[in-house]
Here is the input.
Amino acid sequence: MTVFLRRTLLGFVVAAFVPAEMAAAADGTITFGIVTAQTGPLAAPGRFQLNGFQLAADAINKAGGAKVAGKTYNVALKVYDTRCNAAEGASVMQRLATIDKTPVVLGELCSPVAAAESPIAADFQMPLIITVATGPNITDQGNPYTFRVNANNTQLTKSLADYVAARKLSPLAFIAWNNDAGRGGLNGMRKELPKSVEIGYVGYFNVGEVDFSSHIANIRSSGAKAVMLLMDEEPGALAIKQIRDAGLTVDLVGTLAMGSNRFLDRLNVKYLAGMAQYNAFPPNLPTPRIKAFNDAYRARFGEESHGFAAQSYDGLHVAVEAMAKAGTISDGKAIRDALGGLSTDGVIGPIKFDAKGQASPPVYITQWCDDGKRRVVYPEQYVADCGGG
Amino acid sequence: MRPLLASTGVLGLFAALYLVPVVAPGQLYALHILTLALCYAVPAIGLNLLFGYTGLVSLGHMGFAGVGAYATALLMKNGIVGFAPALLAGAVAAGAVGLLVGVPCLRLRSHFFIIVTLAVGVILYTLFNNLDALTGGAEGLPGIPRPQPLDLGFIVFDFRRPQGFYWLALTVFAATFVVQWMIVRSDFGRSLAAIRQDETIAAARGVDVFAHKLAVFTISAAIAGIGGGLKVTFLRAAAPLSFELLESINLVMIVILGGAGYLLGPLVGAVLFIAIPEVLRIANELRLVIFGVVLVLLALYAPRGVCGLLAALRRRLGSKGFAHARHS
Amino acid sequence: MLTALLEQIVNGTMIGCIYVLVALGMVLIFGVMQVLNFAHGVLFMAGGYVCHFAFFKLTGSYPAAIALSMLALAALGLVLERAVFRPLRDNIQMQIVASLGLILVIQNGVVALWGPNALQMRVPTAETIVRLGSLSFTAQHFVIIGTVAVTIVILQLFLVRSRLGTAIRATSQNADAARVVGIDTNRIFLITFTIGSALAALGGALLGPLFLIFPQMGDLPLLKALTAIVLGGMGSVPGAVIGGLAIGIVESVSTLFIPTDFRDTVVFGLLILVLLFRPWGLFGVRVRGEA
Here is the structure.
């Protein structure tokens, strides 16, 4: 029973304000707005997004706080649940702008919700920094107050398509979520894949579905060489287990969540060996920045870090850097301009926003080895062997 | 069901609503919530006519709102027509779909009809989600423009600003409310009430039950379409998830909570349903748990919805000691 | 082609059995109480969570955990019927509101207590692979089929052979008449709802180890079970069985012929089509005066 009380309390703490560690001489607090899914079907990936923000706030506060225009500030978070609902996203943005008066908002998981949030960001000159949603149209619209730290679908699929083509994984079958993430990924792949890779069976499924037997039977009879899984951790674990239990030896290509040790715990090395996935950052790359992030994440959350967390972690740091550069914690326009000209290095790699507010972080492809470690297979400059991914 | 407030009371309410941005100019968040509530109140009026007055439960009504929404959105985004014609086109499109659905489905008995409307809603959602080329698909359709400012010479209404759009939404709601009122007061409306009470007796008295049902179904779908068009213009983005099963279920809740069969039920229900979870944001993680408890309590203690509760209170206060034998 | 078709029919039958398992509790409650229990999905889900908790914290025995979860959910069902559904007996509208309120409370309560991430439960029957030709299932699939069959038989025996069961049948046919002959219909409804909730828990406890245990795990099964019941003719157990199997098979077979993102459309389109020609469902009762 005490486990549950502890868990419940942890749940409150995790989801509520970060208790800002009071730096020795703080001149105040900057409160950042965070929008994510804390309940509903996408609450699981939303948790990782939030973890990243909390870790970043912790790190900044521990290092003495945010230093802007000669003053030092504690960083606090105001977290709201948008549940992947466009109306709630808009309401929450309105609340953050007019009641909480946060200078910058970060987060969002679902592309259509971000689409409803960005006009309000522009209305109130309150920059919105996306850290997980991948729909290209969010930034393509050219809203000056919308930025995105993570790679969008177009960038992700370019890397995946390169990998698939290089390995000659044809015919390529798909099992995809029938939502913005899955469909967006598939549409992107259709555009990016060269003619040499034939797209085979496409199996869409609804969020919440757990049985893939009909898709698997079709994949087998279609003679696909590889299967790309466009979904998150939980259906991914089920799909891979069912595919392997069915005796299919196809190559597997997956998404970010399928490259973490969490995922390994859900399945086992036998099922995963050889499976490739795109990743926001390879957790075991020996750069000090990544190591520090990993250690802090493990210390706080008791498990290996997650790509969404890394993206969010960088997002908050970028916001603080922009404020420092602009010399203001409240002038939205100045912060926006600072973001536009920013060039920095995050856990996920170099971050620099283009004219539409889209950054181009490297998209890594990691692969599981037989011993449960990962190697990095793409891009060229980051290639590392088993244990280095 | 009789109208809850006398005409003057209703006029007073609308006057007060119009004055909100004037009286509380800085309360932009509250205004936003009120506008959003109006965007839900309009389709709720449609459902109220169908459910509250005629007794037909539709669990797919937001699907019709979606038809209107995407029609309006696509017309506005491509600059083909202005807001008013786009909204009307949305209403016509939604009404047409309603008619198409109603003809085969209205023959079905209560529980079957409910599930079939659910099925229709899911099918419409699937179309919004899958027809990428037409609707923008699952990623949504961003960048829907607000209507052009209305220049009346002495005053300009800028619909890109919260106050301007609020007034627009309120006017659309008011117009829909008048339509609802006219229907309810008419012979057509009385026939609907008769059908809700007992179809067989209504038929025996010469009411063409099927024709009436089809008419109200089509009208309620068209009204839902208007609500959909209003909502996506407000949010400036359309998304299939805004019109999925859960939203349709929420719409039914709004009508019931406010008081099915009361003229002001949709407005009251929409305001409560949208505002309470927003107010509860202070409770963040437990927000929806608390909201669920509130709903259960309302179900137990306001059995005819909030309007029903108010009506009962009014009766009690007005009884002056006389025993009123009112049957609910 | 033929093998593919056969494979999908088998797949569909397997998944259809799962839908039937979820539908059983609902059809019982509907048949007796004329209540469409929308909260059935979250009771199913809660059963999975309680089973997980019982398995890991209380007893390492899977059957014992199942029994405990059925007991716990029966108790919850008892409380809910008494406190929420009985006062709303004559008010279908408010039953819907209350059900949805309960869904919010239970689903988000689970997230608050266990977090949003899915739980895993490994039991031997779910880890044992059984091959049928080129298809692979687990022993758990067959446990589910067996459970469905046994439950139907037990329910049938109970309803026909026992006094209580007969009272339940009497109430379902005509509640007023049942009251006239001295049956305490309040007690009957309470017992029915309790049994229905226990059946929901059974479903969750059996499905949890097969897939995952997560807050939304009951949402889609609820929808499918509802559709199955309606297809079958509302209140009819054989109807629910045929309906559930039919939906499973259509879902699986349709992946051979139409783009998979339109699967739901096919299933629901089929439902509408069936109801157009048989407005009272496959096994339903035709009401006088109906077309």
Summary: Chain B has a mean pLDDT of 90. Chain B has 14 helices and four strands. Residues 209-235 of chain B form the longest helix (27 residues). Residues 7-318 of chain B form a domain with the ABC transporter involved in vitamin B12 uptake, BtuC fold (CATH 1.10.3470).
